[in-house]
UniProtKB/TrEMBL annotation:
GO process terms (BP): isoleucine biosynthetic process; L-valine biosynthetic process
Segments crossing the lipid bilayer: none
Gene3D superfamilies assigned: 3.40.50.970, TPP-binding domain
NCBIfam families xrefs: PRK08322.1 (NF006187)
EC code: 2.2.1.6
One Gene Ontology term of the molecular function aspect: acetolactate synthase activity
Assigned protein family: Belongs to the TPP enzyme family.
Source organism per UniProt: Dasania phycosphaerae
Domain of life: Bacteria
Domain named Thiamine pyrophosphate enzyme central: residues: 188-321
PANTHER family with a match to the protein in the record: ACETOLACTATE SYNTHASE, THIAMINE PYROPHOSPHATE ENZYMES
Keywords for this protein: Thiamine pyrophosphate, Transferase
Protein name as annotated: Acetolactate synthase large subunit
Length: 549
């Protein structure tokens, strides 16, 4: 067989199910090999960035990598934003790019650039296949690295002449091993410190929604009632209805849940990445005692200097804590955290019956979205002002049911991500929320959604401008630059792509329209005029907030 055949066989051996992408001349051999695969489905996308976002969401939902594919030069550069997003948001991914013949890479040549070095800063590993006999080792290493905590993207480049070479190698067998676990001694120290705490708090990061960690975290909280503050990406690690769920942290301004953090005498961080919510925002005076429990040692930062670091498999570490709690017990006065939960719950419920005409408040839109979505249905957020509202007001029952890009934070994420979510979970409702700016950045994937007959709904919040930038500029400068733009006729756009289309101007009609859209066969578009006057109103309220404890 030729080298490209061997690469496909290696991908099959690894259990790869999907490759998303846009082929080119330089990966034609690979595409011909892939066409003969009965295990891997290739999804043709309308832009490489959309392909990368699709692969990212597949990885986040399954814990296993999918591939995203582009050719050399502009195909590779188009991939890089989605790849960086996946890598920083800890989603396993294989990035597959073609390249010109190895005989012309040493000189100026058509579309040739150093793709591997371009991808190195945004992947866990990037390499070129220089000899077909190396393919089994490269592919085994690539998938293993992509899946290993913390997961991320791996890039493999296959020059067009190497792809054609004959090879008699076979794929390496897949072997999976248990991850290292913490030592008993350090876990004893961590538990002893927890026993001393009068008012502990947990910050749950995105590691808590992977690898059984959520199950063990819920068991710990049931035993101890320690309150959990979730980062944007950790939503659903504990059930929103649980008494120890203190909702979400991560807004730049101080919010009600942060009051529980202020009052804590011990902060236990679990699977926490400071890229999501920097410790300068909650430990600026460096006074907090911190226990860091994660797959990797703590990042070095002057505001994040844990007294105890528990390094190893997170789910197992939580299991070890639960064993000690069962043997020795632990309790504390939960009155302070209950006050925080009560006040934030009232805030979340305040707009459920809000009635407006011609414009709809963000809080009402999210209240209605939560009402029509089941516990295991999936909401995806694009990046923009709506992301901040989703983070604050859309709470979850289960892990991985609210997917927010919060490390690299790339706009254009939600529509292609929703396509991948519908492929992974065709039995669930899939709702993407985008601003009018972010939605138009990958609008071409509307065709992909129709071609695949994806059952998904996109709700576009229309304000005719880049609302989050306006919000941030207004916060700092009391005004903002010109950030306005015009939009297409949304219903005509939906019709042109053979989507169902709905426009909702009055808040009283939104819930029923969302329910209708989610029930429709194929993709649906729901557009609402959003009341972003609430952005500055929220800023003012949070600026005047006093903690209830």
């Amino acid at each position: 067989m030729k080298a490209s055949d061997l690469m496909v066989k290696c991908l099959e051996e690894e259990g790869i199910e999907y490759i998303f992408g846009v082929p080119g001349e330089e990966n034609a051999d690979f595409m011909m090999s892939l066409e003969h695969s009965t295990q891997i489905r290739f999804i043709l996308t309308r832009h490489e960035q959309g392909a990368a976002f699709m692969a990212e969401i597949y990885g986040r939902l399954t814990g296993n990598p999918a591939g995203c594919l582009g050719t050399l030069g502009p195909g590779a550069t188009n991939l890089i934003t989605g790849v960086a997003d996946s890598n920083m948001d800890r989603a396993p991914m294989l990035v597959l790019t073609g390249q010109g013949a190895s005989t012309r890479l040493h000189k100026e040549s058509h579309q040739v650039m150093d793709v591997v070095h371009m991808f190195e800063p945004v992947t866990k590993w990037a390499t070129t296949v220089w000899h077909p006999e190396n393919i089994p080792e490269i592919m085994r290493k690539a998938v293993r690295l992509a899946r290993t905590e913390k997961p991320g993207a791996v890039h493999i480049e296959l020059p067009e002449d190497i792809a054609k070479l004959p090879c008699d190698k076979q794929p390496l067998p897949v072997k999976k091993f248990r991850r290292p676990v913490p030592a008993d001694k350090i876990m004893d120290q961590a538990f002893a410190r927890i026993q001393q705490a009068k008012n502990p708090i947990i910050i749950a990061g995105n590691g808590c929604i992977r690898r059984r960690a959520s199950k063990q975290l819920r068991l710990l909280c049931e035993k101890t009632q320690i309150g959990v503050l979730s980062t944007f990406m950790a939503k659903g690690c504990v059930d929103m209805d649980a008494p120890y769920c203190l909702y979400t942290i991560g807004l730049g301004a101080k919010d009600i849940p942060a009051c529980a953090l202020d009052a804590a005498d011990l902060v236990i961080t679990l699977g926490y990445d400071m890229v999501e919510y920097h410790p300068k925002l909650w430990n600026n005076d460096r006074s907090k005692d911190i226990i860091h429990i994660d797959f990797l040692p703590a990042e070095i930062d002057e505001n994040y200097h844990p007294q105890i670091e528990v390094v190893g498999d997170l789910a197992h570490a939580l299991w070890m804590l639960n064993e000690r709690i069962d043997a020795q017990g632990y309790s504390f006065d939960t009155a302070r955290q209950q006050a925080v939960r009560r006040d934030m719950t009232e805030e979340l419920n305040r707009y459920a019956e809000d009635v407006t005409e011609g414009i709809i408040k963000p809080q009402k839109a999210l209240s209605d979205a939560r009402a029509v979505m089941g516990p295991e249905d999936i909401l995806l957020s694009d990046v923009g002002a709506h992301k901040m509202w989703i983070a604050r007001h859309y709470q979850c029952h289960e892990p991985n049911t609210c997917l927010i890009p919060n490390g690299f934070c790339s706009m254009g994420f939600a529509l292609p991500g929703a396509i991948a979510a519908s492929l992974v979970h065709p039995d669930r409702n899939i709702l993407a929320i985008s601003g009018d700016g972010g939605f138009m950045m990958n609008v071409q994937e509307m065709e992909t959604a129709h071609r695949l007959n994806c059952k998904l709904t996109v709700m576009v919040w229309e304000d005719g401008g880049y609302g989050l930038i306006a919000w941030k500029q207004s916060n700092e400068f009391k005004k903002h630059t010109d950030l306005s733009f015009t939009n297409p006729d949304w219903l005509q756009l939906a019709s042109a792509f053979n989507w169902h289309g709905h426009r909702v101007n009055n808040s009283a009609d939104l819930k029923n329209t969302l329910a209708q859209a989610l029930a429709e066969d194929g993709p649906s578009l729901v557009v609402i005029p959003i009341d972003y006057r609430e952005n500055m109103a929220l800023t003012e309220r949070l600026g005047e907030m006093t903690c209830p404890i």
